[in-house]
Amino acid sequence: MHLVTMSLLIVLLAAFTVGCAAEAAYVEDPDAGTAVTAEEYDSSEDVVEEEVVEEAPLPIFGNGERTFTAVNSIDMTINRIQFKVPGSDEWAEDDALANVNIAFEEAFMLAPSFPLDESGNIAKVYDMRLVFMDGTEKVLANFPTSDFTGLEFVMEDEIAFLTFNHSRYHQAVSTKDIELARIAEEEARIEAERVAEEQRRAEEEARRAAAARQQRARNNANNNQQRQVPTNVVDPCIGEVELR
């Protein structure tokens, strides 16, 4: 009896082992819905590889040695960019920065050929003029030439200015206050020139009026003298008569 029991257990254990092996040899194909052998099924086909999209390189405007990454955050298309040394009246002409047509929110690389200062060097800051497609212009002061990243051209309340991150001091910088002060100073200068011109015209009118009065006075004096000069006439009956 004990021997029969042991034999039965051995048979059941063998059957269970064969069943497990058969189950391991077959897997379900999730696409076909059929059972295939482990050797036939390649699970790597179910792995979806993410498509790597390479970003197009940013357009570069200019042929200068220093290159800056910038974004046009002004809702207008920039047609031309010009630079000048602060205090100078002459804007440098750079053909590489003409007809650039930089659209709103477009990122680009800016490589200006900066005009040199009186010492023959690149200045620390420059004045920049943006000429838009509709012909309007905006002048932005304090364009830096080093130690910054993340340059943006911005306009608020019709005031154009720059924003950037100062890489040395690790802080965000905006030139809006500088632009407001510069515009106020320019408006004060224009108003002073207007007042001076009005004063000059008033003084000129007063000078002309005084000169005209003096001329009339001289003319009246001459006329009075002429009326007082005696004139001698000859009367055929009584001879020469002196008239007064």
Number of helices: 2
Helix/strand structural class: alpha+beta
Q: What's the overall average pLDDT, rounded?
A: 82
The CATH topology name of the domain at 60-174 reads Immunoglobulin-like
Q: What is the share of helical residues? A: 25-40%
Question: Can you tell me about this structure?
Answer:
The protein has 244 residues and is an alpha+beta fold. Among the domains are: 60-174, Immunoglobulin-like (Sandwich); 176-223. Helices cover 32% and strands 31% of the residues. The protein has 2 helices and 14 strands. It has helices at 2-25, 176-228, and strands at residues 26-28, 35-37, 60-61, 68-72, 78-84, 98-102, 107-110, 125-132, 137-144, 148-156, 159-166, 171-174, 231-235, 239-243. The strands form 4 sheets. The protein has a 6-stranded mixed sheet with strand order 3-7-4-10-11-12. A 4-stranded antiparallel sheet has the order 6-5-8-9. It has a two-stranded antiparallel sheet with strand order 1-2. A hairpin with a 4-residue loop joins strand 11 and strand 12. The protein is elongated, with a radius of gyration of 48 Å. The model is unreliable at 20-27 (pLDDT under 50).
